[in-house]
């Protein structure tokens, strides 16, 4: 099948929509903004939460072999010495002597030409720049008080391997999953929330007997690709790409990326890595604590190997936005609609009384009370109903429930579906069940 050509205007359209409808705002905007940091607004926070909930549901809730964790963000230098981040978590940095801009050498199209001022041969020698944010704990600065903001959530799972093994009654193969903020002092953040210095990750470390590592690596590559498809990503905008040997991280013997076709081309959403026994061995050596599993039945001790699906929550939310964006002409008017999967859509239902008049207040409150315990509901009484439908289309709400003056007589309401705009009249008494049938939850 021919590869779809990304719409070059899609990026700007989505960024504008994000600002206009309250998905994402530039951080500290009233102070002129703070480069490449973003705040998630009332609608964006719901989208991001739904991405994380959908991941957690699939990775933890629906499995018997994965448990959760929420580890600390601040961590002492020995952790990062053992993990290899102090020595290896670097990017090659070059400065342009002419315009003073800084770049990541490995991301330059032409390593001899400055993309900012266009001059040739103006770059300094490349220097290795460590991406970890460093700060100090307590009032005293300097050596001995240094701490790092974690650049990945993964290390929390390795540090707690023994704790979890002893308390959770799990044995390999089993996983530890975590969602949380990570920080990287990226040289060139950009493409909106795609690459930022503060971002959220969704990572799982799956500990397996060494001879099962390859088979679990294959399993998780497939399972993670399927997760995106199950949540509405079109397969023609999604691919699984195995890394070449020279791309592999210092810990990995095999990695595949789930990639999405962004407006600028294919780029990474998630990496699935076969990390071998690197992490547990490193932390055991550096901490002096044995990190292994004793298989009583076989009477043998071994260091489990690790398969790691590591995704970005904020980056994935952006990909869902890009994939969902659509424009169409309806009755000579242009309609923008985000065709989110219902589990990803910020609001599941919008409750829309036709009029602000007092008569409809009581029954509208009743409908809201009925639905709110089950679904994230928006409630909107302003403007003409057509404009309110358009607003809900633009934030991707799968269903609107409209309450009109007939409702007072027949105790029925209208369900309006986002994609087809088809309407169905249903009694309030069966509304929740009908929505449940249509949504599948
Ligand atoms: N523990 C392995 C690890 O962290 P990674 O490929 O460096 O692997 C995993 O990161 C995911 O985290 C990436 O696929 C991406 O989705 C997300 N990510 C990494 N750096 C990011 C950044 N600066 N901004 C937004 N998301 C980022």
Description:
With 441 residues, the chain is an alpha+beta fold. The chain has 13 helices and 24 strands. The strands form seven sheets. A seven-stranded mixed beta sheet has the order 3-10-11-17-14-13-12, with helices on both faces. A five-stranded mixed beta sheet has the order 21-20-22-23-24, sandwiched between helices. Helix 3 crosses helix 8. The radius of gyration is 25 Å and the shape is globular. The protein binds glycyl-adenosine-5'-phosphate.
Taking strands numbered 1, 2, ... along the chain, how are they ordered across the largest sheet?
3-10-11-17-14-13-12
- Helix count, DSSP H or I runs of 4 or more residues: 13
Mean pLDDT equals 95
Helix content: 25-40%
Ligand kinds: glycyl-adenosine-5'-phosphate
Shape: globular
Task: Note the quaternary state here.
Answer: single chain
What is the end-to-end distance? 34 Å
Taking all Cα atoms into account, the compactness measure Rg is 25 Å
Q: What structural class do helix, strand and pairing data support?
A: alpha+beta
The biggest sheet, with number of strands, parallel, antiparallel or mixed sense and barrel status, is: 7 strands, mixed
Q: Please indicate the percent range of residues in DSSP E strands (runs of 2 or more).
A: 25-35%
What is the total tally of β strands? 24
- Extract low-pLDDT stretches: none
């Amino acid at each position: 099948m021919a590869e779809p050509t990304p719409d070059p205007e899609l990026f700007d359209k989505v960024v504008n929509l994000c600002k206009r409808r309250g998905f994402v705002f530039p951080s500290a905007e009233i102070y002129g903004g703070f480069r490449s940091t973003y705040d998630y607004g009332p609608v964006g926070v719901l989208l991001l939460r739904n991405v994380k909930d959908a991941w957690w549901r699939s990775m933890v809730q629906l499995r018997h072999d994965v448990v959760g964790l929420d580890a600390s963000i601040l961590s002492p230098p020995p952790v990062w010495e053992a993990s290899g981040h102090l020595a290896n978590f670097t990017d090659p940095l070059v400065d342009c002597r002419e315009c003073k801009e800084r770049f990541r050498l490995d991301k330059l199209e032409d390593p001899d030409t400055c993309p900012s001022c266009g001059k040739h041969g103006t770059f300094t020698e490349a220097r290795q720049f460590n991406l970890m944010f460093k700060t100090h704990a307590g009032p005293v600065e300097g050596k001995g008080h240094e701490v790092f903001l974690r650049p990945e959530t993964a290390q929390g799972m390795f540090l707690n391997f023994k704790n979890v093994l002893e308390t959770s009654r799990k044995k390999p193969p089993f996983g530890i999953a975590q969602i949380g903020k990570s920080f990287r002092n990226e040289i060139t953040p950009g493409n909106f929330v795609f690459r930022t210095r503060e971002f959220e990750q969704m990572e799982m470390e799956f500990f397996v007997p060494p001879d099962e590592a390859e088979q679990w690596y294959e399993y998780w590559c497939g399972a993670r690709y399927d997760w995106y498809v199950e949540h509405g990503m079109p397969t023609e905008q999604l691919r699984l790409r195995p890394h070449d040997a020279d791309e592999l991280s210092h810990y990995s013997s095999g990695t595949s990326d789930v990639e999405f076709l962004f407006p600028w081309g294919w780029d990474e959403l998630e990496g699935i890595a076969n990390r071998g026994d690197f992490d547990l061995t490193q932390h055991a050596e550096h901490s002096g604590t044995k990190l292994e599993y004793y298989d009583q039945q076989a009477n043998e001790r071994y260091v489990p190997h690790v398969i790691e699906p590591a995704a970005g929550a904020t980056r994935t939310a952006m990909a869902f936005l890009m994939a969902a964006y659509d424009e169409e002409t309806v009755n000579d008017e242009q309609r923008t609609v985000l065709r989110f999967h219902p589990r990803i859509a910020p609001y599941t239902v919008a409750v829309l009384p036709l009029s602000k008049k007092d008569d409809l207040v009581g029954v509208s409150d009743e409908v809201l009370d009925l639905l709110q315990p089950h679904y994230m509901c928006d409630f909107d009484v302003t403007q003409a109903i057509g404009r309110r439908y358009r607003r809900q289309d633009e934030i991707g709400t799968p269903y609107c429930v409209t309450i009109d003056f007939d409702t007072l007589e027949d105790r029925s309401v209208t369900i309006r579906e986002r994609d087809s705009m088809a309407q169905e009249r249903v009694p309030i008494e069966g509304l929740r069940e009908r929505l449940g049938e249509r949504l599948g939850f």
